[in-house]
Amino acid sequence: MTVILREGADLRKLVRGWKAAGNIVGLVPTMGALHDGHLSLARAAKAECERVIVTIFVNPRQFNNPDDLKKYPRTEAADAGLLATVGVDVIFAPTADEVYPAGFATTVSVAGVAEPLEGVLRPGHFDGVATVVTKLFGMTLADRAYFGQKDWQQLRVVNRLVRDLNLPVWIVGCETVREADGVAMSSRNARLGGAARRIAPALFAAMTRAGGAIRSGADPTTALADCRAEVLASGFDSVEYIELRDAATLEAAEGLNRPLRLLAAVWLAGVRLIDNIAV
Ligand code: PAF
Prior knowledge:
By secondary structure, the chain is α/β, with parallel strands linked by helices. It has 2 domains: 3-174, HUPs (Rossmann fold, 3-Layer(aba) Sandwich), CATH 3.40.50.620; 187-278, Pantoate-beta-alanine ligase, C-terminal domain (Pantoate--beta-alanine Ligase, Chain: A,domain 2, 2-Layer Sandwich), CATH 3.30.1300.10. Helices cover 41% and strands 19% of the residues. The protein contains 11 helices and 9 strands. The strands form 2 sheets. Strands 1-4-3-2-5-6 form a 6-stranded parallel beta sheet, with helices on both faces. The chain has a 3-stranded antiparallel beta sheet with strand order 7-8-9, with helices on one face. α7 packs across α8 and α10 (201-215) packs antiparallel against α11 (220-233). Pantoate binds at residues 29-31, 59, 62, 129, 132-133, 151, 154.
């Protein structure tokens, strides 16, 4: 049975019991509005850990846009139903006061990998993510934590943070789950209307073409320019970035003989979508 806990003290008591019994504890941090991408993380955690906690917390500190925070879908009852089908042990859904009690004064800030791309376009976002993820690791005492590769830069930031602070948690990055037409699953997709949803697959299609062209020796600058033009011609409102970066550091990709990542952030019908693929 999946239980819902809201207080850190209750969670800690339960997890201490699990640990005393020698159980490995897996964590899937989420902001709710769950889809198959989240469920695939929960299934991966179930396959590798004796106990699984999914956290549902819409973290106010990582929203640089108050309107985005307000519009973020909140669907806890439906989420709980989905997680029960996966056999998750605990849903930890704390209040904001439980996570950030009065007097809270600490920010975890990652330099380097958190600075480009989303770091420029969403100031403060990764401080909010790094701070809440550090808190969730502390609150859940997890041994392993599962993150989607869809948020590639976030995954790199969390990896850096865990290494830099010697946090005793193993980070597992899981493949992006896509709809049949290639659209990366995201809680924000629910905000796309029918017409916009029909345009959305063009992003992954254009990125796949650009990635293939670069792998086959095309000039990256030309391939990226073609990709941006194709996305705009398909009906997207604007492109914030479509860039080729070093997959680990997210620095500009100078030289193509190392793992690279093609990353994109675009706007469609008032919704900001991100995606990335290996090149
Ligand atoms: O990826 C998300 O949903 C959030 O950034 C996370 C990791 C749950 C932190 O709030």
